[in-house]
Amino acid sequence: MEILPDKRDLRIAELEAENARLRGCLKERELYCAKLAAQLEQALKRIDQLERQLDLNSQNSSKPPSSDGPKQRAQRKKKENGKRAQGAQKGHPGHHRELWPPEKVDHQKQYFPTNCSECGLELAAEDARGEPVRHQVFEVPPKLIECTEHQRMACECPGCGHRTRAKLPEAVEKSGWGPRLVGLLATLGTLTTDTRRQLDWFVGEVLGAPSSLGCVQRHLEEASAALKPGFDQACTAIQRAEQVGVDETGWRKGRLPHWIWVIQSAQAAVYRIRSGRTKAVAQEIIGAPGARIFVTDRYGAYSYLAAERHQICHAHLLREFVKMSELDGEVGQIGKKLEVMSRELQGKWARTNADEIPHEKCVIWVRQKVRPKWEALLKKAAAHGKAAPAVVRWLLKDKHLKMAWVFLEHPGVEMTNNASERALRGPVVQRKISWGSQSNAGLRMMERLWTIAETCKRQSISALDYITQAVEALRNEAPAPLLIA
């Protein structure tokens, strides 16, 4: 007799199959939930990162002050001396316009009192006594430019009757503008960051000379050629300097991104424009390091420099500490302490450079009081792991700790890279106005103009006079003037 399967066994099999299916669904659901949780965690981290970026400003990052919005400007922390009244402070030496010596004065007018201020007796010019009180008024004459017409005369030969016309001197024939006008244009285009159209307007409307955009550009190119020897002199001087600062910022060649690199010392500043911002470019700009001391920010392209001769900028570190102080918890509290300590350090070092505090006394204070506490706070922050900013772990590496205190071992070395940043302010303004260069020749022109203008300032010589002399030398095929004595 055939035995029929038990209905209960069939039901058990169905339930086991359904249970297996549900277990599979549950496992898939768990995997899906885990995936969603991971995505949520990643999204929250990204939101936190973006919110921190929104809070970045010139006080807690390397962003320039001009990038701050109205809200950020209103929230800027005031300096310690922010309660001072505006304008010159009591005891501050005044800045007064100097009088020209008598031999430079073009016109002179004399005024005599008509009556005695005491008794009223009538006075005459013959009664004048003592030196006059001088007051000078400067005015722009109606005609600011002079024009010299060069006429090529023709003479007829009495023998054959042929007429021969004279040739212009080569220096005159090369241009319709004189060397000083070319020097003025180059100076205005660099120091005042005027555009080509503004220079064209100035020559035509203010000076009253015929001008065009093409004429302006042609003479700026002439100035660029004239300034190459001076540029080369500045490059040589930078290689001989004991201390240099290096920095970089953006530029453009047409639609392509480029970078302006500046390497500067107390005597000179050299600008280079390159298509890259890499270690290889930094090595090209710097050249052989030699025994020079370098001051830079923490950009990785400079990491190849020897730590014992490489000072990192404490102004950049201060901004990192300000950003760290805005974090929650103990890490934020440590950031506040580091910020206060950094401000005190930079303030005392500035007073030391101003000879208000003996140098050796300040160095001892930094070594015994500041540096140990500074490093202890960094280690305390690093104990929080990833909750601490990356700059904390970066600074605690032996090489980077050395780089933070190089200025203590070498008198005269700056603890910030502010001088290099100031040297780039003009080019940054020019970038925003002009949108960069359009050709390789344009890149070389800007390099030379910036280099000459900034180096002249550091040499305490007139950029206008130097460029004028350089153009004259080029036209007369004479040796270029010395930029650095």
TrEMBL record:
Pfam families: DDE_Tnp_IS66, DUF6444. Residues 208-444 form the Transposase IS66 central domain. InterPro entries: DUF6444 (IPR045618), Transposase-related (IPR052344), Transposase_IS66_central (IPR004291). Residues 55-65 have a biased composition (Polar residues). Residues 3-98 form the DUF6444 domain. Residues 54-100 are annotated as: Disordered. NCBIfam families: transpos_IS66. PANTHER family: BLL1576 PROTEIN, PTHR33678:SF2. This is IS66 family transposase. It comes from Bradymonas sediminis.
